[in-house]
Design brief:
Porin, 16-stranded antiparallel barrel, 6% helix, 330 residues, mainly beta, 2 helices, 16 strands
């Protein structure tokens, strides 16, 4: 552990000492997503419908340091639903690069296990399932600490893909004010993610995560994720699975299948299905149908999702949800 902390400290000091930006450009962009959905819940009282909102402003800067190295930095301001203020912990990063190699100090920016190679016509299963009973399927199996903690990402691009190492010195560390320290979190984690395109139209993904146990009564949490997809003409198909050794010594397995069809260069339809074994009475099964239509500056998405045996319960009623999403970038 001492060696890991020494490596992190050395990398940060080296990054700071690399020089100031000689030429830089600042950009402001963002996006907005407005939704409306209806939910058929586990009881009549849980049946409901309503609107949703997510808006975000992205501020970034890129350029070249005096010594010729590439440089970029940025952060996002996000506001969801009825929030009265912006969340400033989104996508904070500072990155230095040389050719195909980069080092990035960040929170909520590094590559992680929440990605999937399975093709979609709209949003993810987890997003569609918001508002339903707790589901066992999770695009972020385990703690996925680097999404909510400051971390160091080392990435190396190669012909047809990339290899990424993400080191989290303190899981859950969202940072203190100014030079302050968040001392409430413990444990480290490390992820290795390899993505490649072996042939035209094909994508493969291998990811391994190892998170240190939070106490002596728990075991380290480990995740192995593999996936592949292939695009042939108007069709795309994909499969991804995750094997999860949980901190309580149980083992979970989850699988995702997907297929999309491009009706035209503007219209895409798709089907997704997941199966999750979380050591419960039943395997949870989720099925979703999606439609995506690109109107240039505006995207229109519609979906329907059905959850059978939510969270693996043999007694919980099945649930359904239908949604409409309008999105734009600026």
């Amino acid at each position: 552990m001492k060696n890991s902390k020494l490596l992190l400290t050395s990398a940060l000091v080296s990054t700071v000492a690399m020089g100031v930006a000689a030429h830089a450009e600042t950009k402001i962009s963002g996006g907005a997503t407005y939704t409306y959905s209806s939910l058929n819940g586990t009881s009549k009282a849980n049946n409901t419908q309503g609107a949703g909102k997510e808006v975000q402003i992205d501020i970034s800067k890129s350029g070249e340091l005096d010594n010729g190295l590439g440089f970029s930095a940025g952060f996002s301001l996000e506001q969801d639903g009825s929030q009265t203020s912006f969340d400033g912990s989104e996508g904070n990063f500072m990155k230095v690069s040389s050719g195909n190699t980069s080092v990035m100090y960040n929170i909520d920016k590094a590559k992680n296990l929440s990605a999937s190679v399975v093709p979609r016509a709209s949003t993810s299963i987890n997003t569609m399932a918001v508002g339903l009973a707790t589901t066992a399927f999770d695009y972020s199996p385990g703690s996925q600490a680097q999404q909510s903690a400051w971390n160091l990402e080392l990435s190396q691009k190669f012909d047809g893909g990339s290899a990424t190492l993400v080191y989290v010195p303190r899981m859950g560390d969202a940072g203190g004010n100014n030079d302050g320290i968040d001392t409430t979190q413990t444990g480290t984690s490390m992820d290795v993610i390899i993505e490649a395109t072996p042939v035209d139209g094909a994508k493969v993904r291998l990811a391994i995560s190892d998170a240190e146990a939070a106490s002596s009564t728990l075991q380290d949490q480990k995740v192995t994720q593999i996936g592949a997809s292939y695009n042939f003409g108007q069709f795309a198909v994909g499969y991804q699975q995750a094997d999860i050794d949980q901190a309580d010594s149980t083992e979970d397995k989850q699988k995702e299948y997907g297929i999309t069809y491009s009706v035209s260069d503007k219209l895409t339809v798709g089907l997704l299905q997941t199966s999750t074994d979380n050591n419960s009475a039943k395997d949870e099964e989720i099925t979703a149908a999606q439609i995506g239509y690109n109107l240039g500056p505006v995207t229109v998405e519609a979906y329907g999702i059905s959850v059978k045996d939510p969270a693996g319960s043999a007694t919980a009623a099945d649930e359904e949800k239908f949604g409409l999403r309008l999105g734009t970038k600026f």
